[in-house]
């Protein structure tokens, strides 16, 4: 449900609940009883569903992921002016939707992948406020990055299937597709966020800014 | 407490929960989600339960008073 509609629905529910609360004798008439039933049961339940849906939808946005201070450097790493950095290559060339960049690559494309990602997010909030927040460069994935996430988009693409690098050995592509050879940790595409490189890095957005001047 | 007051109490609690839900949807931050789930929804849920409870207890009191009224009319 889009956010403006959800906000309107909750606002309407709120107004009707207040009307029932402050209007005297509302439960005396049949219409009043029906209004109370809608205002105090039906609309609040629908509002919760809409609000929950809106929150989950917004939790998938890049802005949401980067709203925690510890993630700021990961946000910067999406703007490297270097094609060897996988996240910035994908972000700058719109290979992933920019407003859902983190979620696109860090969610399993399995049945319960999004649910798992949300529970991981709750764990991150707990650590942020009640635990010890690690340094950005010390943050690690829960498990090695799965090939399925890359193959979700790249599998079957001509460039992926035909590029020379994927045919160094006869069975290389099959190993990648079956997950026996990792896209990232096998040493082929292992330049990821590398937030330790940020100090000396050149950024695409800076170049764009300089060109504009 | 009569049904009117019970409904008023329930509606005000529901309104408080809905207000928190509305406010939690304005900022884009993880804590806003926590406020929605941890405060808005439980407060609203308590209000809805009180509303349902008031309906049940009211209908029970009406049912229990009905035979007494009929006895009076018989006399």
Give a verbal description of the structure:
The complex is a heterodimer of chains A (213) and B (75). Chain A is an all-alpha fold and 213 residues long. Chain A is elongated and about 80 Å long. The mean pLDDT of chain A is 89. Chain B contains 2 helices and no strands. With 75 residues, chain B is an all-alpha fold. The model of chain B has no long low-confidence stretch (mean pLDDT 85). Chain B has a domain of 33 residues. Helix content of chain B is 89%, strand content 0%. The radius of gyration of chain B is 19 Å and the shape is rod-shaped. The chains are: A mainly alpha (213), B mainly alpha (75). At the A-B interface, helix 1, helix 2 and helix 7 of A face helix 1 and helix 2 of B.
Q: Element order, helices and strands of chain B? A: HH
Share of residues in helices of chain A: 40-55%
Order of helices and strands of chain A: HHHHHHHHHHH
How far the N terminus sits from the C terminus of chain B, by CA atoms, comes to 30 Å
Major sheet description of chain A:
none
Task: Categorize the overall geometry of chain B.
Answer: rod-shaped
Described by strand count, sense and barrel closure, the largest sheet of chain B is: none
Oligomer: heterodimer
Low-confidence stretches of chain B: none
Distance between the termini of chain A: 41 Å
Helix content of chain B: over 70%
Count every beta strand of chain B, where a strand is a DSSP E run of 2 or more residues: 0
Cα Rg of chain A: 24 Å
Q: Hey, roughly how much beta strand do the residues of chain B contain?
A: under 5%
The radius of gyration computed from the alpha-carbon positions of chain B, rounded to a whole number of angstroms, is 19 Å
Biggest interface and residues each? A-B, 39 and 32 residues
Q: What's the overall average pLDDT of chain A, rounded?
A: 89
- Total E-strand runs of chain A: 0
What proportion of the residues of chain A form beta strands (DSSP E)? under 5%
Mean pLDDT rating of chain B? 85
């Amino acid at each position: 449900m889009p956010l403006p509609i959800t906000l309107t629905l909750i606002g309407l529910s709120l107004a009707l609940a207040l009307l029932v609360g402050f209007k005297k004798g509302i439960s005396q008439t049949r219409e009043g009883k029906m209004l109370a039933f809608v205002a105090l049961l039906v609309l609040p339940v629908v509002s919760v569903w809409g609000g929950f849906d809106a929150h989950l939808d917004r939790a998938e946005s890049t802005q949401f992921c980067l709203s925690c201070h510890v993630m700021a450097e990961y946000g910067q790493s999406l703007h490297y002016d270097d094609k060897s950095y996988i996240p910035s290559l994908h972000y700058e060339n719109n290979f992933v939707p920019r407003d859902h960049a983190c979620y696109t690559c860090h969610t399993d494309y399995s049945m319960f992948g999004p649910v798992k990602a949300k529970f991981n997010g709750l764990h991150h909030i707990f650590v942020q406020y009640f635990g010890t927040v690690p340094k950005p460069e010390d943050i690690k994935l829960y498990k090695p990055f799965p090939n399925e996430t890359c193959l979700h988009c790249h599998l079957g693409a001509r460039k992926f299937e035909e590029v020379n690098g994927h045919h160094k050995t006869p069975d290389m592509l099959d190993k990648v597709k079956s997950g026996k050879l990792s896209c990232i940790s096998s040493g082929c595409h292992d330049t990821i966020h590398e937030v330790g490189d940020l100090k000396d890095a050149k950024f695409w957005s800076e170049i764009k800014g300089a060109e504009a001047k | 407490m009569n049904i009117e007051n019970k409904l008023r109490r329930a509606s005000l609690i529901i309104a408080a929960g809905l207000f928190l839900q509305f406010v939690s949807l304005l900022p884009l931050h993880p804590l806003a989600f926590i406020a929605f789930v941890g405060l808005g929804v439980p407060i609203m849920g308590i209000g809805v339960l009180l509303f349902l409870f008031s309906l049940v207890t009211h209908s029970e009191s009406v049912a229990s008073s009905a035979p007494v009224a009929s006895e009076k009319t018989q006399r």
